[in-house]
Amino acid sequence: MLPFQGVPQPLIVDEFSHRLLAETLLLGRVSNPTPPMWEHLQTMQVILRPTYASMYMPAQGFFLAIGKALTGSLWAGVVLSVALMCMAICWALRGWLPPFWAALGGLIAILRFGLFNYWINSYWGGAVSALGGALVIGAFPRLARRARVGPAVLMGLGIALLLFSRPFEGAAVCAPVAVAMLARLTRLRGRARLVALLRAAAPVVCLLVLSAGMLAWYNAKVTGSPLRLPYEVNQQEYGWPLTLAWFPVVPHAHEFRAMHNYFLWEVAEHKKVADPASRVYLNALDAGMLWAFFVGPALTAYLVFAPRAFRDRRMQLPVAVLLAGLATLLVEQSRYPHYCSPVTAAYLILLLQGARHMRAIGARRRPWLLAMYRFVPLAILLVVAARATVPALSHQHNSFNLDMSWCCSRSGNPHREQIVGSLNRMPGKQLVIVRYGTRHRFLYEWVLNGPDIDKQKIVWAHDMGSAKNGELIRYFSGRRAWLLDLNDDSKLPPLSPYEDSSGSPQARTPRAWVTLPR
How many angstroms separate the CA atoms of 372 and 173, rounded? Predict the structure, then answer.
């Protein structure tokens, strides 16, 4: 697909945060010392104290680092995670369904999640936690048939991936599986129970304990406490409301307008979820977004017959996993498709079971249903072919209000890429002081740096007024200083040499932006 799609560029701060972690891991460490002049380098989704690191869980950054180590491209790590996810989904389906249906489900996974959507065409994530969920639910039927070390190890690896990517939603997936495993153990007696404990339960528990220890070590290195996540440090430093609606919003001061506007947006989103009057409306909107991503018009035909699988005792666990995963979304502020990615395999199991019912009913008494069942995969293939080869069908979105459909992609921030290209062609190192205007969109962040700031070609920093900027320029004395004046994000911003004088527009006194939520 590269001749048609190209390697994607990061767009939002979340993607840059994952990339920061990947580049840090490639330096042989999990965090970086707090850089000098760190006040100028503040940005969303990154912590600068007690260490300089990404605020996110490490799984996505780990895959990005593998991709760059193997090929020189961070995006190769995204491709690797999506490929492994599709393989694991097909493997998981094979544990619950006959071979033909598992192969059909694997094909659907490739077409829907492996080509055009933001799981593959961004650095935001989604595939890693879907891979973990597929390993967990795919291992269960194999362990239920016979206790073996291999599936148990894969289940333990799946739990570890969920712990290191989306622990809250991952716990909702693992809980029904754990209950089902305990129920089977209680029904065993004597030697059969001992074998199941040694071959199935013991590997899973050992890997879980090892993963928890590794996460505690990671937290200690990044935040100084084994029980404190980087996410918590970032939230306490800048006051972003937690995504769970019952946590209160705490007023917070922000020195930079862009970060303050992001705080206001987060507060507004939090209020919407906490307000019962708007909750039904928001749930309907989010349900439409999730339908567009996971189902779409073609697969709706299969989904209509999926409720018939709810009456099948063999499908009780996938039903429980799917319902538990969806229940977590009801209490969260945001409901992007990667939030419920751990239940992807469970969803496809039930979807394919619905397709089996559709085919059986059509073969018995409704030939038109059989024809529709056969047309669904062909329709998806036709859409993929058209989407790949007809440029007019490429949905490009340059704002944060992304159309979260399976066939859409994003073009990134072309203006930043142009300026980066121009600065990279200049001799020597560069320092860019960024000044945001009133019309700047807060999620188009420009102050984004790598793990080793002193050695990188371009350093991006916030404008903090004449005195502070002077200190920054003196610290980076070997660099050429530029001023980037950002107001209208739709146009290429002007880049001019930084010249300071007491009466110049650069000389301003920074203020602390404070919000007291009503």
Answer: 32
Residue whose structure tokens are 């605020």: 55
Q: For residue 86, tell me if it sits in a domain.
A: no
| Separation between Cα atoms, residue 107 and residue 89, nearest integer Å | 10
Give the residue among 175, 59, 178 at the shortest CA–CA distance from 125.
59
Contacts of 368 (CB under 8 A, 6+ apart): 362
Residue-by-residue DSSP string for 426-443: SSSEEEEEEEE-TT--TT
Of residues 163 and 362, more confidently modeled = 163
- Candidates 203, 222, 221; CA nearest to 53 is 222
Residue 424 lies inside a defined structural domain of this protein: yes
Q: Is residue 499 part of a domain?
A: yes
Question: How many Å apart are CA 279 and CA 70, to the nearest integer?
Answer: 45
Q: 3-class secondary structure for 141-193?
A: HHHHHCCCHHHHHHHHHHHHHHHCCCHHHHHHHHHHHHHHHHHHHHHCCHHHH
pLDDT tens sequence across 231-259? 999 988 998 887 776 677 777 888 888 88
Q: Half-sphere exposure of 336 toward its Cβ, with a 13 Å CA cutoff? A: 14
With H, G, I as helix, E, B as strand and everything else as coil, classify residue 394. Answer: coil
Q: Is 507 contained in some domain?
A: yes
Task: Annotate 302-339 with three-state secondary structure.
Answer: HHHCHHHHHHCHHHHHHHHHHHHHHHHHHCECCCCHHH
Handedness of CA 496, 499, 502, 507 (dihedral sign): positive
CB 447 within 8 A of CB 460: yes
What is the rounded distance in angstroms from the CA atom of residue 80 to the CA atom of residue 292? 24
| Residue type present at position 346 | A
pLDDT at 513: 56
Mean pLDDT on 191-211: 92
Number of domains in the chain: 1
Q: List the domain range (segments joined by +) for residue 505.
A: 414-515
